[in-house]
Write a structure and sequence with these properties.
With about 350 residues, the chain is α/β, with parallel strands linked by helices. It has helices spanning about 5-15, 40-55, 75-90, 110-120, 130-135, 140-145, 150-170, 180-195, 195-205, 225-235, 250-265, 270-280, 310-315, 335-340, and strands at about 25-30, 35, 65-70, 95-100, 125-130, 175, 205-210, 215, 295, 300. Helices cover about 45% and strands about 10% of the residues. Helix 8 packs across helix 11. The radius of gyration is 22 Å and the shape is globular. Bound molecules: iron/sulfur cluster. Pathway: tRNA modification; 5-methoxycarbonylmethyl-2-thiouridine-tRNA biosynthesis.
């Protein structure tokens, strides 16, 4: 067969990348269904995140940015991509890794070893804050006291504050987390199902807490989980930890997650469409929203006299661990706080709260 014919025959059997039209396609993008090669995938994946950062004005030059790092796939890819983009596009950011040690033997101690390796691999300094130091309790001790029913409520509330406190100690201007498009869609759905208007209003924002000391950003807001884990992290052979938390419940959020995955299988754009729908919800001006103040005891942001962490901690220290779970009596009484006490607060996970 002549050289030209051989090339044509080969192209007829091998599907070529729809971007470069040169290399063999290695994957089909779930968002666009394009079949592309690895090299073009790296370019479009990183460019999309760069565009999200630039279009949403996530950072200013010179800012000190804490990357919430659990050692899991999303935060590992975030740390890697953000440090690459920071170099490539001269963002001028001072990046560091911030991890929370919840004190979960056989889970967090192992995943923190991954973060410690990432510290060296990506050249990013690491700060670890622990529940034991901040609250006097590890999650192992909390689970011993309360059992496995509401453990994630404690863990989610404590983690949120621990990250803020760690970021404040390290004088960070911003905190970034690895929440991806699937997490966003799932949270929107959960907030609709539970009728949590206050959270529904803010859960679609790419940056939250701008009125507080340390705003939080989600550069992966439009990035599909599949592309983060099964493609980018896998092709790049990134070092991440994938074991599930030993206290992970199979709760309400798990069903929402499965529902989103089913929708994605039928129509991959469903994830982005749920996010768009969430972004376009408008809260009626007659809806009463909670007023933000500060906790009387610790000074953390709170819409009640005491913040949620102080209420939970108070219960633990007084041997009444159920205090603050379900209906709150005596300390904080509003309906809003009762809603917040529900156990499907956050991704039950190793990843970080939205
Ligand atoms: Fe904490 Fe997540 Fe484990 Fe629940 S599943 S105990 S929130 S690390």
């Amino acid at each position: 067969m002549e050289g030209g014919d051989a090339t044509r025959a080969r192209r007829a059997t091998v599907r070529l990348c729809s971007i470069c039209n040169q290399r063999k396609a290695a994957l089909k993008r779930p968002k666009t269904l394009e079949q592309i090669c690895r090299e073009c995938f790296y370019v479009v994946f990183e460019d999309e995140i760069h565009r999200t950062i630039v279009d949403n004005h996530l950072f200013k030059p010179g800012e000190r940015v804490a990357i919430g790092a659990s050692g899991g796939k999303d935060s590992t890819v975030l740390a890697y991509v953000l440090s690459e983009l920071n170099r490539r596009h001269n963002y001028g950011l001072d990046l560091f890794l911030l991890s929370v040690d919840e004190g979960i033997t056989g889970y967090r101690d192992d995943s923190l070893e991954t973060v410690k390796r990432n510290e060296i691999q990506y050249g990013l300094p690491l700060k670890i804050v622990s529940y034991k130091t901040l609250y006097g309790w590890t999650m192992d001790e909390i689970v011993k006291a309360i059992g496995l029913k509401n453990n994630c409520t404690f863990c989610g509330v404590f983690r949120r504050q621990a990250l803020d406190r760690g970021a404040a100690v390290m004088k960070a201007d911003k905190l970034v987390t690895g929440h991806n498009a699937d997490d966003m869609a799932e949270t929107i759905l959960l907030n609709i199902l539970r009728g949590d208007i206050a959270r529904l209003g803010r859960c679609t924002l790419i940056t939250t807490g701008e009125d507080g000391p340390i705003p939080r950003c989600k550069p992966f807001k439009y990035t599909y989980e599949k592309e983060i884990i099964y493609t980018y992290a896998y092709f790049k052979k990134l070092d991440y930890f994938s074991t599930e938390c030993i206290y992970s419940p199979n709760a309400y959020r798990g069903f929402a997650r499965e529902f989103i995955k089913d929708l994605e299988r039928i129509r991959p754009r469903a994830i982005l469409d749920i996010i768009r729908s969430g972004e376009n919800f408008r809260i009626s001006s007659s809806t009463k929203m909670p007023e933000q103040g500060t906790c009387e005891r610790c000074g953390y942001i709170s819409s009640q006299k005491l913040c949620k962490a102080c209420v939970l901690l108070d219960g633990l220290n007084r041997g009444l661990p159920k205090q603050g779970i379900g209906r709150t009596k005596g300390l904080n009484k509003s309906k809003d706080e009762e809603n917040k006490n529900s156990s499907f607060h956050s991704k039950p996970c190793g990843t970080l709260d939205i």
